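Troubleshooting: if your tokenizer reports a length mismatch, compare your output against this known-good record of 170 residues.
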Amino acid sequence: MRAEVIRGDSMEETGLTHFDEQGQAIMVDVSGKQETSRVAVASGRIAVNRAVYDAICQGSVKKGDVLGVARIAGIMAAKRTSDIIPLCHPLPLAKCSIDFRLLPEECAVEARATVKVTGKTGVEMEALHAVSTALLTIYDMCKAIDKGMELREIHLERKSGGKSGDFVWA
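Known-good structure output:
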């Protein structure tokens, strides 16, 4: 089965760089690009019930340090993004950090990933993958208390570097 490609006058015009002229999926050729410093920041939230929120805050979840384990899982995910997202380039990450903010008024936890690389392609997918995995890890560690948790608002906050320049989510 071939992917259907929406075509303009050229592939560059459509912005669909992961398709060749025949509409087949390809890995983008970055060999001619300049290496630049690139940064991406992504965030998301997990909404939980009061029992889960309190257990995370008190460190009483039976599986252990929820946010510590989620941080490591997010970092590991960023490093392995190209193993999961088929057309992503493997990147030698220079930095990946995962920070959490407890939101008592929303009964939620916010995760924010910052990923840096000097390379020929960006790290947006690595930041998004890191946040998603960190939040899923919180879910996994707390599901014995409540299975009704909800991942929300996973998005790219900002990115810099590369030909397309800076992006800031409004």
